[in-house]
Amino acid sequence: MRVSAIRPVHVKYLFKNLQFIRFQSVPSLAHFNPYYADSFSDESDSDTENNIICVEKSNSNINVVELSSNGVIEILNNLKKEPIFALSFFYQLKERGFLHDVWTYMEIIKILCYWGMNRKLVCLLSEVIKLEKEHFSLQVMDLLEAMVKGIKSEDLSSLGRAIDALIKAYVSLGMFDEAIDILFKTKRRVVGPCLLSCNFLINRLVEHEKVDMAVEIYKQLKWLGQSPNVYTYGIVIKAYCRKGSFEEAVHVFREMEEAGVTPNVFTYTAYVQGLCEHGRSDLGYEVLRALKGENVPIDVYGYTVVIRGFVKEKKLKEAEIVLVDMENEGLVPDEYSYGGALIQGYCKSRNIMKALAVHNEMATKGIKTNCVMVSSILQCLCQIGMAPEAVDQYKNFKDLGVLLDEIAYNVVIDALCKMGNLNEAVWLLDEMKAKKMVLDIVHYTTLINGYCLQGKMFDALSLFKEMKEKGLQPDLITYNVLVGGFSRSGLAEDAFLLLDDMRGLGLIPGTATHNLIIEGLCLGRKVKETEMYLYRLEDKSIENYSAMVNGYCESDNATKAYKLFVMLFKEGRYVKKTSRLKLLSTLCLEGEYD
Asked: How far is residue 218's CA from residue 211's CA, in Å, rounded to a whole number?
């Protein structure tokens, strides 16, 4: 077909009618002979015929013929002033089976670099890396080499941006060795990654506990002549503090001084945070106060770090002192200072009165509560046996318009189950479904446990089946709850069937599972079945025997419990303290203790 016999179509028109395109990829040519749009000429009929998109109208039907790598490059070049269109075109070709090669990728990368579309560039390169891992013919290093050779000297900034994106793509995929390889390969060339990308890589290494690797990169960069900035130093200080090397961290401060770089809030806070994370919050607070004395600006986060440190060390009074000190300095505490640290600290120590007092104080200062604080308070109330108060608090928070998450709902469902109010618990679960909230095995297991506590095993089993129908795989806890429920209800056969079901899923019944069956069957007055179960149990532990002592006591078999205790005692094995106390109490009540 001659070129004169074909009428070219405008790129935008073609782009809008992409569904009519019939594609043909010519990767072998494009890999070794890059061909750009500005190289087309009327004198090269054969090349033009093979590489340009053309449309022939016949009977008002549009037929698009052969699209090759060079044709794609030409279209992308024409779309370079409209990067969104160019990127959409690139991806639509890919979706329709076109095999992009080094040169088509390089063309779209050049466009993204020119327009500074860094996030999209990282996503694109991440896809290339994934394809390479899947044994795709396109190699990342081939692409990098083509970029280095193909981008003109005046476009070095674009090359640098592409290298930065490639490093971030590797880091985002957790491929740190490859990211480091790119870093030092390109650093020795005319252009390398910017300091921002180096900082990004070092910081992510620290966050992934690859501290030694991060420090080594910092040293190598300095050896290569890279001048760290204040954030580089801050990250390295954080790295040393993360591993507890505080002397090395102080040495970095000296390096900063020698380089004429003034430490900022980030570098100082990194040091203070390191001290607090290693149980030296008192020293961290001293450093904070010393810095304040030298008029170094310390922000809210710096104080919050120390508050969290004291909370972690269960020094809640000291944490409150820091909070007051922060306010005296004219800083306004935020929800992280209160709820993210202090309120959660009091809840973990089960001091609900203090937690509520701090929460009320926070509210009076106009700081909004959040679902994390609410969940902590509700959970603390349940843990100290105040389930009705937890439900009341939940209703108060809901009336105030506080956004409650799945965790808060689960705590309240658990509280209602413990109160025996299963109807309201089911209603809450239905409310979660109506709100399109994500229900997991924890929510289902909580309500299943509620049914089991009430002996409603049919309802428990129905909910268990619903959970599996939703695609949620029951875990060991779910099975333990059901096994315990069936055992307490005297349904030994059903409990044993569940054990078989567990093993079929690869879940191995543990000591807790066996204890639930032993104590549950005894409660269900199935003493003989329990004795047989214990007898057949392989690798019986002292915990299993302790559960048997408890079971005998629960089934009013104090004599058998005592005989088992004496037998174990003579063998030099001692049941748990709780079991001994339970046995003593049962013997006293039955008048058999002398």
From this structure: 11
Joined together, the tokens standing for residue 535 give 């007898």
Rg (CA), the chain: 34
**Nearest one of 373, 390, 371 to 381, comparing CA atoms:** 390
Return the structure tokens found at 354: 């203090």
- Distance, CA of 205 to CA of 216 (rounded, Å): 11
Residues in the chain: 594
Handedness of CA 484, 490, 492, 493 (dihedral sign): negative
Structure letter (DSSP) for residue 536 = H
Q: How far is CA 123 from CA 147, 170, 523, in A?
A: 17, 10, 59
Question: Rounded to two decimals, what is the model's pTM?
Answer: 0.70
Distance CA 566, CA 562 (A): 6
Tokens of 540: 């019986």
CA 494 from chain centre, in angstroms, equals 38
Beta pairing, strands 61-65 & 7-8 = unpaired
First to last CA, the chain: 112
State the pLDDT at residue 584. 85
Q: Please check whether residue 76 is in contact with residue 32, taking contact to mean a CB–CB distance below 8 angstroms.
A: no
- In SS3 terms, 19-49 reads as HHECCCCCHHHHHHCCCCHHHCCCCCHHHHH
- Integer Cα distance of 505 and 459 in angstroms: 23
Q: Over the stretch 326-384, which tens digit does the pLDDT of each residue have? A: 989 888 888 888 877 899 999 999 999 999 999 998 888 888 888 889 999 999 999 99
What would the pLDDT profile of 19-42 be if each residue is shown by its tens digit?
444 444 333 333 323 322 333 333
- What single-letter DSSP state applies at residue 278? T
> Which residue has tokens 């309500």?
447
User: How many degrees, rounded to 5, is the angle at CA 65 between CA 61 and CA 70?
Assistant: 145
Residue 296, both tokens: 């170094």
CA–CA–CA angle 415, 421, 427 (5° rounding) = 90
3-state secondary structure of 21: strand
* Token output for 242: 């993360």
Q: CA distances (Å), 228 to each of 184, 197, 221, 231, 358, in order?
A: 16, 12, 8, 8, 43
- Kindly report the CA angle at 296 between 290 and 298, in degrees rounded to 5? 90
481 touches 452 (CB < 8 A): yes
d(CA 559, CA 565): 10
One-character DSSP codes across 62-123: EEEE---HHHHHHHHHHTTT-HHHHHHHHHHHHHTT----HHHHHHHHHHHHHTT-HHHHHH
Beta partners for residue 7, in sequence order: 55
Spatial separation of the C-alpha atoms in residues 359 and 367, rounded to whole Å: 9
- Edge-to-edge strand order for the sheet containing 61-65? 7-8, 54-58, 61-65
Instruction: Write out the H or E segment, with its range, that includes residue 479.
Output: helix 476-488
